[in-house]
Amino acid sequence: MRTRTAYSVAAVTSLALLSGCGAADMTKQASPFANAQGAKTVTLSVQSWVGAQANVAVAQYLLEHKLGYRVDTVQVDEVPAWDALSQGRVDAIMEDWGHPDQEKRYVDDKKTITRAGGLGVTGHIGWYVPTYLVKQHPDITDWKNLNKYSSLFRTAESGSKGQLMDGSPSYVTNDKALVTNLKLNYQVVFAGSEAAQITQMKQFAKEKKPFLTYWYAPQWLFKKVPMTEVELPAYKEGCDADAAKVACAYPHTPLQKYLNTDFAKKGGRASAFLKKFKWTTEDQNEVSLMIADQKLSPADAAKKWVDDHPATWKAWLA
Questions:
Q1: Which of 170, 174, 175, 217 is nearest to 196 (CA)?
Q2: What distance lies between CA 243 and its chain's CA centroid?
Q3: Which of 19, 105, 176, 236 is deepest in the core (most CB within 10 A)?
């Protein structure tokens, strides 16, 4: 599971990627359109990473241009998004990486949130090094050898230890526990956001410098900066149950969608469409690449994907 906030300039970059009419920070205000009685409106939660933005962009485009809805998007981190969804301040979460505590509370117990099926994409978090470094040091992909190479990864922020670069402190990460429990000579250093982390990785890659980073798939950056995963101790069910004692790899997680229960029941064609929305990792990466690398607006990227893939999305409207 994972949670993905941002500081400094990176926050501006992440916000610039957001689509929607009146995108806002849900920690400060609620959308005026959520649960608007009798109105054809939908409010979608959008997280800061570009894959989640790609889902929302395409869903928004189709809801607006094919189903005639007014769509509002709000930026909100993963855990607060569950509270907003339960309260009806947003209608849908399009990409959740696994939050069992929230799922039990809101889906199973309170029943204020309803499962809306799989997104069709499997997510995985891991530690990665650039593939050009693996060619120089083939055994660096085994975690047992990381201490041998820690000096390669030293930065001003990590001091005498190697740097393990993470994104945002708001993302679900076991990395501090992993470093401690695996007795690794590394310091977790947060870039602040996905955008800031990408900037750092691209700069390291441009200069062919070593780096070790927390990263995840699906992600468009793999096409620009080839990376190889470091093998951590194998994941087994329950090995991450105690956050302080985690000493295993991250799981592979089929990403899920969730709807506010009232919206699921009364949302008409919009809720039916969102339940059917299901695409592939390749689809998501195609849109993400257009947004983050080719600098298309989310709306333009969504339109291009919709124009090129009618057979996929028409099934969602049936």
A1: 170
A2: 20
A3: 19
